[in-house]
Amino acid sequence: MAVPMVSVVIPTHNYAGFVREAIDSVLAQTYRDVEVVVVDDGSTDDTAAVLDAYGARIRRIHQEQRGLPAARNAGIRASRGRLVGFLDSDDLWCAEKLGHQVPVLESTPSAGMVYCDTELFEDAAGTSLGRHGATVPHVSGQVLPALVLGNFILSPTPLVRREVLERVGLFDERLKSSEDWDLWLRIACGHEIAYVDRVLTRYRFHGRNMHKNQGRMLDSQLQVLEKLFARADLPACVSGLRGLAFGQVHVHFGVNYFWNDQFAEARRELGRALRSNPRLLRDRDILEKYVGCLLGGSFVRRARAWKRWWQ
Q1: How many angstroms separate the first and last alpha carbons of the chain?
Q2: Mean pLDDT to the nearest integer, 172-189
Q3: What angle do the packed helices 284-295 and 242-259 form, to 10 degrees?
Q4: Hey, which residues does 93 pair with through a beta bridge?
Q5: Other Cβ atoms within 10 Å of 198 Cβ, number
Q6: How far is residue 84's CA from residue 113's CA, in Å, rounded to a whole number?
Q7: Which of 23, 89, 119, 173 is the most buried (most CB within 10 A)?
Q8: Cα–Cα dist 257/254, whole Å
Q9: pTM here?
Q10: For residue range 36-66, what is the model confidence (pLDDT) as tens digits?
Q11: Residue 62, SS3?
Q12: How many CB atoms lie within 10 A of CB 86?
């Protein structure tokens, strides 16, 4: 069989209600030299019946449940394309995605991968939440100094050279989440990353998203940074960013905990942020939230009520 230019790996677990849309969005690509590899990670719902309906149009792998990173890796190992894309089974690709991204990698040999922008949307009503790049800056080229301060490359957007994956390794199966950020960082340590300034994917928010488990995501993101800063070959452009990088993670989760009224967790994370990056002491908003947590939940609720009244 001829080797396809692009392999698309779609891992799925009990997403029978979503996976058909994901597969169809790849089969509808205007760029046609594509194979679709779907990894059923131990589903117990109707996923098998959904996949059976595609016959030879997809390559299907079934394995006992091992988690998202392991399912992606199984798909990569079974695939044959020179370029590899990833699509979680609750997200979607726009029809022109590969048509825009493949030429970028063909014309930019220094780029190890290319990514694009995505539209965020809520599944219940299909309501658009806007373009990811409208609130999160996207950069290209030597992106490592920016990427270490937060993951702006969402999982359905990249297209990666297989030779780069062979060089830097696959997804870290020890991580419970943020394994995509870990891989993008490893790629960025030795390669440029290109960006197509177009919305070419759609990222779905729903009740079962992994980001709902804040504690697991926090632990994984800290592990990702510990791995990065433990590298003996860490590029000089990021070696001095350790405090800032850890501070960003603690701020992000501290603020999330604060607005979810988890004040003990917010106090812990904001305190860690201030210790990791003392420059945050000049950030009035962070300081106000931290002091509010120190004074207690009842104080914060009264302060919010007073602010609403004043406004």
Answers
A1: 67
A2: 96
A3: 50
A4: 201
A5: 16
A6: 9
A7: 89
A8: 5
A9: 0.92
A10: 999 999 999 999 999 999 999 999 999 999 9
A11: strand
A12: 22
